[in-house]
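Model: Ready when you are.
Researcher: Fold this.
Model:
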Amino acid sequence: MFAKLPQTLTAPFGLLTDEAKLAFRSRPQGISKLYTTRRIAETDSYWDQYFTLFDTPSDVFSLISTHDIRRALLDSPENVATLIRVVTSRLFNLVSDHTFPCAPPTSVASYATSFMKSSSTERNATKEVLNSLRVLQRVLPVVFEVEGESNAFELEVLWKKVEVDDEIVPTVPDQAPQFVIEDDDDGSENGHDSNTQSQTPRTKRTKMLPSLGEKLFTCVNDLLFCCGFSLPTKIQVDHYKINYVIWEKGVGSTTDSGPNHAYDSNKTEVLRLLLVLLSRQIYIPPAALFTHPSFYTLHVVRKTPRRDVLTLLCSLLNTVINSATTNNITIASVAGKVPYNHLLFKGDDSRTALVGMCLQVLCVLLDFQSGPARDIVSDSGDATSSSPTAQTNAFRYFLAKLHRTQDFTFILSGIIAILEQQLAISNNLLPGSRKSVPYVPETIILFWKIIELNKKFRAYLLDSDKAVDILAYLLCYSLEIKDKPQQHGLCRALSYIIQTLSAESAFGNKLSSPINIQIPTKWVSQGASHGTAGDFIITSVYSIIATTSGSLNSIYPALIIALANAAPYFKNLSVVASNRLLQLFTSFSNPLFLLSDESHPRLLFLMLEVFNSVVFHHLSDNPNLLYAIITAQKTFEELGTFTLTRGLREIQRVQQIKEEQASQAERDRKDGPQQERESVESAHQEKLRLLKNESDPAFTIALDIESASFSGEDLEAGLGGHEQTETRPLTSPPSESSPTTSTRTTTAVSEKARGKMKARRSLSSDTINGDRMAAAGVGRNGFLPTQEWVTSWQQGLPLDTVMLVISELLPKIQNLQAGRQKANSAGAITDFLQSVTLTDVLPPAPLLYPRRFVWSDASIVWLTSLIWGGVYVHGMSPLGIWNSTSVRLFFVKHTQPQQRQITDTMSSVVGGLFSPTRQRPDRSSNQ
């Protein structure tokens, strides 16, 4: 009797189902039958276990591997087709069945009761629907990867339409267009319709049944709006359980049914299947993205009824926007605020998972522009623009049509709330105590899509007082992720967003406004307060460029273009911001940087445009920048006479000094007596001091260059190592501030100090074995700078305006400094520069032509890859939806995860609390 007790308990209570799940992997009637037995009939009882065995998504993804599906496709492809047909057929029947959906459990006791009845004879329609969705999520990615974009199996199973005979009914003129697309109105108007009816009253007609893929999309839409499954039963009308109403209040709706854990979880399951269907795109190579569009995404954006598009779009959007402003108190929301809670409890709650899934689906749908879904290009005057239509991409079209002010306020407030929440986590007193908001990247992409598509929203944003705040949030997030290589794609997206905003005149008018948000102190430059938005954008761009060692050089143009677009509106720039601009300029004018890549002179050109725009539009409003420009006179003069030979000589001079320093350091290390070592160090420090006093910033910048091949280290050295000398106020006397005087004096002393060096360090042209050989070592990626190339860009540099300002103001400033005490010279110079006017000297100010971000085929493919790359990474844990499949849209690089010990966690926490800088450990942010 007791020997049979476990079996009797297992059947009615269903508490020991692990045995059946393990048997599914091992017994012949389990998953192995799918690829070992040919042509399993659709009516075979073997398929029933796919609907009743699994309890969670993890069960499906762990018990059915990609290897199983791939082997079945090779050995028994008809079984995979049968599995898809059986699962979808059961899904369609269940959705229309009166037993679906089952009432969700409302208490712990009812949940336990439903769990114990899971393996009894009572049918659980909701569980079968969920398992149908999960099996399709597991099988379809493996089907998609087969044969790339020309998958005959996929087309046969999911997209084949069957022509059948229509019901034989008397011909009725009003019903004729239901199945006949041809236009026969002319015949009817000529009086032939009645004769035709009398001759053939029972015409045999045919119709095309929708394909399995089309029916699956219809079923997915119905499940997203099914009362009792994804919506509350209280909104059900009569016996119609499918009710297309917007999920939450916000855009298009003023009612809110409130959150429900079961409904949120079910929505996530359905949206995951929708995302899997849309993921057909990642198995198409980038070169074929426009010519071979995904049938699935095309159907959603072009064939979905207007009502369904609007309801789904508003539901997804409202769920995202309400995520950061919800006032509902749940166990998950309270537990999520406990410090270091994410280190103990892995995974997201149902609400967070739903919001993330909504954002991913939104970004994918709003980004899609392949094949016939491409925006329509129109010519408007001198410029061309593109815009979506209801026939190309209905989701992009209806998002662009939003126009109500309350909708804009709702969307903007929600996006700012999410970004504010992330910034608060980054600025937390306890480093790493709270988990980062997992869907911030998708929120930023959604914001980009809204300002790109909806011009009215963009105008509303720039006219509101929140424009400066959202700029600060975007810049802060860029500073937070700039040192994480896996986030560099998002950094690039942020640079394009900032460039897009900077092209608007309303944005420029906001740059004089103060920053109101609390910026973390680690991102505020030394000696500078938050200042204005103009100051912060300059110092942020400087930090991004200066501290990344050239790893983000692909975003330099967009950031510098943003500065050039905003420069005509700069007013009252601080000392720090002004010197940051000059540091960027001197770094870009460094010969090693200029000659290393063909595109680098463009950055120098843009920086000169920044200075020119300030001079033309707000000359007297920026005395600090004017003074910084005047003190950099030598750099501007050398650019006017720059040649390839001079640049190569400077590069070689820097390299020789670098070698001498390395040799001196090696000798210091080998020297035995301490006194001798200290003597050598003092001489070495004296030499460095003399070199540092030179007014040639490019020389100092290049001290840290390791080789002739440019790797970005010259930017880091030149931008990050001289803050104290570059951020001084206007207090220098004539003998120290005059570029001409100081340069001549210091250079003479430096040459005298270097006279004791070996003769091989002479800078004569004899030491350079030809410019061509030297240039070959400077250019990277096969680029070879030539004098003709140097002349082509050097003659086009807009230096005239800056040189004119220097020639006019430098003598006057020198006279002021010569006639005053050192303590009073700064105030006098500032007053003078604030009152100066050069309207009679300068040419007329040119018209403003901001450089807008223009979409190209390459940029569209890049953003699509970025979005799907994020979706892929999110899907890796915990399910691994697309793992081990042949993704073609982007390259997947797998790295071995580092083991994290408890002692590491504690040391990170304690070290973060008591370290002077209190920097948050990089690896803690990834937990």
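Researcher: Now this one.
Model:
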Amino acid sequence: MARNGLCFPGNVPAFRATIVLSLLLLLLHPISAGHDYHDALRKSILFFEGQRSGKLPPDQRLKWRRDSALHDGSTAGVDLSGGYYDAGDNIKFGFPMAFTTTLLAWSIIDFGRIMGTEQRNAVKSVRWGTDYLLKATAVPGVVFVQVGDPYSDHNCWERPEDMDTRRTVYKIDRNNPGSDVAGETAAALAAASIVFRSRDPAYSRLLLNRAVRVFEFADTHRGAYSSSLRNAVCPFYCDVNGFQDELLWGAAWLHKASRRRQYREYIVRNEVVLRAGDTINEFGWDNKHAGINVLISKEVLMGKADYFESFKQNADAFICSVLPGLTHTQVQYSPGGLIFKPGGSNMQHVTSLSFLLLTYSNYLSHANKNVPCGMSSASPAFLKQLAKRQVDYILGDNPLRMSYMVGYGPRYPQRIHHRGSSLPSVQAHPARIGCKAGSRYFLSPNPNPNLLVGAVVGGPNSSDAFPDSRPYFQESEPTTYINAPLVGLLSYFAAHY
């Protein structure tokens, strides 16, 4: 059996032809001229500095940004300054921020040793997130999950430095549960505790202890935060998938971070109840199923946890569900070879699913295993190539020959849907720009004056077409959770290509 690709039995020529055609389309078109993955890695991490809220540090590198939202939380009597704006608006949504932090931490855990000089900046990006999450979970039995009224904010086009929209504080508690966002927050804190275990042991212990407390709260007081806070979080970050996956996800990270038997037993006991095998081909801020299965499968592949074998079976099924050309493929590919799922901000699916392909391929390589997919099998090398093909598409190997990362390559999006980037900087225009005064910049055909270096936008449609225009927010808006898994991907390819 070949070890460097998909392997097929000799008696299925039609099946083989389908796969070969798909692979030709996916992997050989267009031909890559090579990429500077280290430059792309540096820029993908730099992007997070452009999303910072609060008091900016002296070593801030994106100089067109200034301090913002310094009094967040004051209406609730707490300090909620800091953290990240999730995308092109000025709201701090806790659910995607926690997922972003988890994926940044996972990127460092698996690929930090090969990040080179960028490891330090990646660790800083995690700490900017966890410092905020510690503030948001400082009150026992409460998690502050959002700052800012989204309707008020989305009605304005203004710089974060000028914000005068309502900074309403939203929280979950025992009477208004949110196991989804609390479970993800616990995952983020636990994953980050691994990142800081040797770098800052005291901080690591603080993160882990807080993760334990937040997870207990999430598990004890079960419910979806979009039921408790529907008007504030829907339709923006409404939990459509349910909270069960976040409980397993949080337990999985606590198991990895603490090695406490109680979390292993929790996972085994709740695997069926919390539906570990559901929607296995999804992974993102709302759906953790594929991530749970890949994360837990590492222990099985290392020969340490046979009791988790069913999670490996789910992970294998996930891999088969995204491979091009297979009969039961559940993921669409554009004519140019990009993973495509219906809905907004498609690049979030591209980077998160590709991250899992790469991560799982590494686990398989160490165990000398392939993934069985019916009458064929996929090698770790093939999974890496599939992930690399997605990254190369983002960086410019696509029908438009356009990089979808701002500041990378000769051609990239110029009019991204992002308030701070599209409005004149405070340095260039010291006078305040009011809520509606910014509309002319939103509607302007001119390129954004401030380069949000490293931002990866939502990306092209299913036909590989891309409107470089601010009003097309699903295509032109960057998000933190697009970039977070990309950090891990670029770290690997920078070290190996």
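Researcher: Key takeaway?
Model: Strands lie at 6-7, 92-93, 142-147, 169-173, 332-333, 339-340, 371-373, 376-378.
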